[in-house]
């Protein structure tokens, strides 16, 4: 049984995923800026020199070892949008894993933006019905803080209503041209609806959009929250990662553990103890992403190394009697953050334990063969002696194995 489980896991870890991600929205909404900040290590102020995207900017973003994001940054000018929805409709909207649609909260032509969005959702339903949709209400820093939540909630309600309208158009097979909608796009939508109904009449009523909405800005951590959620849904072997991370957290009696992708510092996975669940700061994970990204930029500035290079291997913070924390390079493609109660022996033993756990996360660097049951039985994770405190690290005979 154990051997069969190991073989099944090996087959799972061998899978290399390539996800098509569409990044769409009107011209000037901030699509390329956020992409450059997340994946190219731009500072927010550096994005001012970026020009408008012409047609489709196609890039293959490596994320972890076995995930490639086939990222299509689509220019938002009206001529390009009409082309996507008519002549290039099948090419653009086929085999999409994720659609990221960006709304500029300061847009002066909201109705036209929404009409374009409805047509895009209709095209997505036709060619990639299982795709997930993430809607980013962007540039929220331009809204006064006192009214920001109200403005966002109002826009969320509108977008959800328009999404339902797009689905209804496909169901009724009678798409009508919305105000400001290009005629060619409307005709393509009509043909698409009829084709979808003819190909799958029994399932056309089962259309459901898997959608999440976020308020974002390039000037704060909200951008990391949105993109971490997007990436979280795309990461292969996520169940294995979460199980392993929980095993490490329990073994070292940590409060919280975060696993970051090396270049973007997006949170790939996290584990929180019961004590950690009491932390009142709900945005602390994306705040840490922003802080570590800034620290990486600072290291780059003073060392003269490229921003995409590895800038540091370890970062330790000890807050007296409050807590201790360290960030260390974990695998080739990841960093790990461990937060725990204070105590020098506990801290040192946790660092040893994390080092001992590294082999169990090697699959994050690419497809590997999972260890056999026999090999796994000899691998142990050292656990500190919480009862003895100063007793330091337990012997291997008394340590707890990782549950892999």
How many beta strands in the DSSP annotation?
11
Low-confidence runs: 12-16, 174-181, 196-205, 368-380, 383-404
Query: What's the CATH architecture name of the largest domain?
Result: 3-Layer(aba) Sandwich
As a whole number of angstroms, the C-alpha radius of gyration is 24 Å
First-last Cα distance: 13 Å
CATH topology of the largest domain: Rossmann fold
- Total separate domains: 2
Tally the helices: 12
What fraction strand? Answer: 15-25%
| Helix/strand/pairing category | alpha/beta
CATH superfamily of the largest domain: P-loop containing nucleotide triphosphate hydrolases
Sketch the topology as an H/E string, one letter per element. HEHEEHHEHEHHEHHEEHEEEHH
Q: How would you describe the shape?
A: elongated
Largest sheet: 6 strands, mixed
**What is the CATH C level class of the largest domain, in words?**
Alpha Beta
Mean pLDDT: 78
With strands numbered from the N-terminus, the spatial order across the biggest sheet is 2-3-1-4-5-6
